[in-house]
Design goal:
heterodimer, A: 226 residues, alpha/beta, Rossmann fold, 2 domains, four-stranded antiparallel sheet, 8 helices, 9 strands, B: 292 residues, MetI-like fold, disordered C terminus
Chain lengths: 226, 292
C-alpha cells in the first residue's frame, strides 16, 4: 500500500502548493489524478516518488514510513518506484544511447549482468526495434524516446509506477501503445499505478478510479465563517 | 528549359563562415603542431648551455648563422626562444590543467551539494577573487626559490576560480532536469549522478576554459619572469628575454625584443583559434552547420 497522509508541500514554506492532501494507492490499482495546470498534481507525484521532500505529512510505503527524500531515501525505497515524466527530452540524459539509458538503473544498482537479458525483454515490449537502441536521444522522436523512458522505468521491476502526464507530448497511437504496456505490466506484476493528467477520457478508460484534485484537499474547517 | 536557383544569401554566408572557420582551425592546429614539435625536438638536437656566453658576438642582427640574431651576451636567440617557449608551454599546460581539475572539482561539489556547502564554497571563491590575482601570484612565487614549479603553483592557485564558477553554474542548471530525478529513482548514488550525468555534461565547458587558460598562463609566466620573480635569471624564458632586451631596444637593436614577443603572440593566437573552433562546436545552433 502507498499512502500519502496530510501532505503539505511546495516550493515556498509560506505558500505551499499542497495543503493537507491525502491519497491511498493499493497494489495492483490504477488511480488517475485529474486537475488543472499548476494545481500541484506533479508536486504530489514527486512527493509520492520520494523526489520532493514535503514540509509536513507522511508517505507510507508498504507499511514503512519514508524517512528520507531524494538521495537520503534508502535505495530500496527509491527503486520501488518507476517514474515517467511529461517531457521525454528532459528526462533522458542526452549523452546516453537508448540501450544505455534503459540499462542505467541496472548498472547504478550493481546488476550489470542483467543488462542484456532485460534489454531483450523490454525493447520489444515497448516497441523499440531495429537500430533505435544504438541511437542517442536527439536522433529519435519524442514518442520513441518516451518508449525508452518507459522501458527504463520498468527495468528494475518497480512496485509502483508514477506516470506524470506521460502521454501529454504524444500522438494517439503512441499514447495507446504506452498505456497498453503499463497495463500489461500492472496485470502481470500487481504494481500500483498513479497516472497524473488532464485527459479525463483517457484516465477514465485507463484507471480503476479517477480522483479529481479538489477531492484530495480537506474541506475548509468552517466554510460558513466570514 | 533548365532552371537554376541561386543559393539564398543566408546559405551562402553560412558556407563562407564555415570555410573561414575551417581555415582558422587548420591554420591554428598547424602552427601549434609546429611549435610543439619544435619545443620537443630542438632540445634533443641542439642542447643549450644556459650559462654559456659569447661577449664577442653580442647583439648581432639576424643572419644565416643566427636567424634571430644574438642577445646582449652573444647567445643565439632562436635557440633561447624555443627553450623559452618550452618553459612557457609547460607552465601553460600544467597550470591550466591543474586549475581546471581543481575548479571543476570545487564547482561540481558546490553545485551538486547545494545549500550551505554551496554558499560556503562560493564565498571562498569570492574571497579569492577579491584579491588581484597577479598580486596573489607574486606573493606565492615569492615564498619559494625561483623555478618552474613555483610559477605553475602560483598560476594554478590563482586561476581555478573562473572554472569553478562556470562548472557550478552548469551543474545548478542541470540539477533540476528530470533525467537526474529518473537517475535517483533508478537507484543512483549522489556520486554516480555526479560522475555519470553531471560531469560529462560540464566537461566540454571546463575543457574550453582550460584551453583558453593556456595562453593566459603563458603570459602570467612571462610577466612573473619579466618582473624577476619567475625562473632564475640565466634560464631561457620569454619574459626574462623581453626584460633583458629593453635596454638594447632603445639603442635600435630590435631583434631581441621582436622574436621573444612573436613567440608569445603566435602560440596565443593559435590556441585562441583552436578554442574558438571548440566554442563553435559547443554551440548547438552552429553544430549542424559545421562540416568538421
Amino acid at each position: 500500500m502507498l499512502e500519502l497522509r496530510d501532505i503539505i508541500a511546495g516550493y515556498d514554506r509560506r505558500t505551499p502548493v499542497l495543503r493537507g492532501v491525502s491519497l491511498t494507492l493499493a497494489p495492483g490499482e490504477a488511480v488517475g489524478l485529474l486537475g488543472p495546470s499548476g494545481c500541484g498534481k506533479s508536486t504530489l507525484a514527486r512527493v509520492a516518488a520520494l523526489l520532493h521532500r514535503p514540509d509536513a505529512g507522511t508517505v507510507v510505503l508498504d507499511g514503512t514510513p519514508a524517512r528520507g527524500w531524494r538521495h537520503r531515501a534508502p535505495r530500496a525505497q527509491r527503486t520501488a518506484f518507476g517514474v515517467l515524466f511529461q517531457q521525454p527530452r528532459l528526462s533522458a540524459d542526452p549523452r546516453l544511447r537508448l540501450a544505455d539509458l534503459i540499462a542505467e538503473p541496472l548498472r547504478a544498482t550493481g546488476r550489470p549482468a542483467e543488462v542484456a537479458s532485460r534489454l531483450d525483454e523490454l525493447a520489444p515490449l515497448v516497441g523499440l526495434g531495429g537500430d533505435l537502441l544504438t541511437r542517442r536521444p536527439h536522433e529519435v522522436s519524442d514518442g520513441q524516446l518516451q518508449r525508452a523512458c518507459l522501458a527504463r522505468a520498468l527495468v528494475l521491476r518497480p512496485r509502483w509506477l508514477i506516470c506524470d502526464e506521460m502521454t501529454a507530448m504524444l500522438d494517439a497511437s503512441t499514447t495507446a501503445a504506452l498505456v497498453a504496456v503499463v497495463e500489461t505490466y500492472r496485470r502481470e506484476t500487481g504494481a500500483g499505478v498513479l497516472a497524473v493528467g488532464h485527459d479525463r477520457t483517457l484516465l477514465h478508460r485507463w484507471c480503476d478510479r479517477t480522483v479529481h484534485w479538489t477531492d484530495l484537499a480537506p474541506a475548509p474547517a468552517n466554510p460558513g465563517a466570514a | 528549359m533548365a532552371s537554376t536557383t541561386a543559393p539564398a544569401p543566408r546559405a551562402r554566408a553560412r558556407r563562407a563562415a564555415g570555410a573561414r572557420h575551417t581555415l582558422r582551425l587548420r591554420a591554428s592546429a598547424a602552427v601549434l603542431a609546429a611549435l610543439v614539435l619544435a619545443v620537443l625536438l630542438v632540445p634533443l638536437l641542439f642542447p643549450l648551455d644556459q650559462q654559456a656566453v659569447d661577449l664577442a658576438g653580442k647583439l648581432r642582427p639576424p643572419s644565416a648563422a643566427h636567424p634571430f640574431g644574438t642577445d646582449e651576451v652573444g647567445r643565439d636567440l632562436l635557440l633561447r626562444c624555443v627553450y623559452g617557449l618550452r618553459v612557457s608551454l609547460l607552465v601553460g599546460v600544467v597550470a591550466a590543467l591543474t586549475a581546471t581539475v581543481a575548479g571543476t572539482a570545487v564547482g561540481a561539489l558546490a553545485g551538486a551539494l547545494g545549500g550551505a556547502a554551496d554558499r560556503t564554497v562560493m564565498r571562498l571563491v569570492d574571497l579569492f577573487s577579491s584579491v588581484p590575482h597577479l598580486l596573489l601570484g607574486i606573493f606565492i612565487v615569492a615564498m619559494f626559490r625561483p623555478g618552474v614549479w613555483p610559477v605553475i603553483l602560483s598560476v594554478a592557485l590563482t586561476h581555478w576560480l573562473s572554472t569553478a564558477r562556470i562548472v557550478r553554474a552548469e551543474v545548478l542548471s542541470l540539477r533540476s532536469r528530470p533525467y537526474l530525478d529518473a537517475a535517483l529513482t533508478g537507484g543512483a548514488s549522489r556520486w554516480r549522478i555526479t560522475v555519470r550525468h553531471l560531469l560529462p555534461a560540464v566537461l566540454p565547458q571546463a575543457g574550453l576554459a582550460a584551453v583558453l587558460m593556456v595562453p593566459h598562463a603563458i603570459w602570467h609566466e612571462s610577466a612573473l619572469s619579466f618582473l624577476g620573480l619567475g625562473l632564475p635569471a640565466h634560464e631561457a624564458s620569454l619574459g626574462i628575454m623581453a626584460n633583458a632586451a629593453r635596454s638594447s631596444l632603445l639603442a635600435g637593436d630590435w631583434w631581441p625584443t621582436l622574436f621573444p614577443g612573436l613567440f608569445l603572440i603566435v602560440p596565443t593566437l593559435a590556441v585562441a583559434g583552436l578554442a574558438g573552433a571548440w566554442r563553435e562546436r559547443l554551440n548547438p545552433r552552429r553544430r549542424s552547420e559545421l562540416t568538421l
